[in-house]
Amino acid sequence: TVDGHSKNGTEVEAPALGVERVHTGANDRVLQGTVLLSRSIVRRERAYGPSDGIPVAFYCGAGTTGRSYELWLRLLGRRGLRVCPYSFAVDAYSDDVDHTCASLLSAADELAGDLEGPAVMGLSLGADLAFMVANRRSDVRNLVAIATGASFARCAWQDRPLRRRLIERGWTLPRLEIAWRELSPEHNLPDGPNRRVRFSYSAYDRLIGAANASELAAALRASGAVVDVRRGHAPGHLAACAAGLSAPASLANALKR
């Protein structure tokens, strides 16, 4: 399958989606229409689409907000979905390993409680949250994950400044994989024939790593869920994210079933 295209090549790609990084530090002006969840590091933003549309929770990647994907969210809204983006209000992870784990697990708990419908979608770090939320809510039927891998720790380890700080604090990758196991998609796999998962990734996404993404694809196929894996060739992580978002009609169908 080619990134962003249906198999018969008839679907038109959306225009450029603007997945540029947006600073979201704690001192930023709070985006209009957003709600910071009570104890969480994430905030709920204004929804896109008709008020009576099928509700979909969309978990943004680190450093981005719903405005980074506004064009794409509007395109999904035109297809009968009401997409509610959630973004990180502060840095999502750091070399404080225990705090990172506790913060993200708490965020997943709150997002699961805030869920309004049976469909979740996430991109990059947001995809990890989507897996955690689906694992907490058995009523989630449709999950779309873009640009992530089996191991949360291995993704984070590719961040060179973070890896250097972790090593300075005595962490190794094997130890980190144990400490952050609960955050990993491979630990939060949906199962059963009533769960549908669409997973897209790029073989050239160095942040995630081809082996890490392939391992998640294999684990999903073995999970018992109905799985649609789309392996593409976008050059880099941001390109992989954009490619995963670039077929709104196909995505809408995956979230509605």
Describe what you observe in this structure.
With 257 residues, the chain is α/β, with parallel strands linked by helices. It has helices at 70-77, 97-114, 125-136, 152-157, 160-168, 173-179, 210-221, 237-245, 248-256; strands at residues 35-36, 42-44, 54-59, 81-88, 119-123, 142-146, 196-202, 226-232.
Summarize this structure as a short list of keywords or feature phrases.
about 260 residues; alpha/beta; eight-stranded mixed beta sheet; disordered N terminus
From the helix content, strand content and strand pairing, which structural class follows? alpha/beta
Unreliable parts: 1-33
**Tell me about the biggest sheet?**
8 strands, mixed
Number of DSSP E strands? 8
Q: Taking Cα atoms only, what radius of gyration do you get, to the nearest Å?
A: 17 Å
General shape: globular
The number of helical segments is 9
Helix fraction?
25-40%
Q: H/E series, N to C? A: EEEHEHEHEHHHEHEHH
- Mean pLDDT across all residues, rounded? 85
Instruction: Give, in spatial order, the strands making up the sheet with the most strands.
Output: 1-2-4-3-5-6-7-8
Oligomerization category of the chains in this entry: single chain
Strand content: 15-25%
Distance between the termini: 20 Å
Summed up, what is this model?
The protein has 257 residues and is of the alpha/beta class. It contains nine helices and eight strands. Helices cover 35% and strands 17% of the residues.
Secondary-structure blueprint:
Blueprint: E1 35-36, E2 42-44, E3 54-59, H1 70-77, E4 81-88, H2 97-114, E5 119-123, H3 125-136, E6 142-146, H4 152-157, H5 160-168, H6 173-179, E7 196-202, H7 210-221, E8 226-232, H8 237-245, H9 248-256
Parallel strand pairs: 3-4, 3-5, 5-6, 6-7, 7-8
Antiparallel strand pairs: 1-2, 2-4
Helix pairs in contact: 2-3
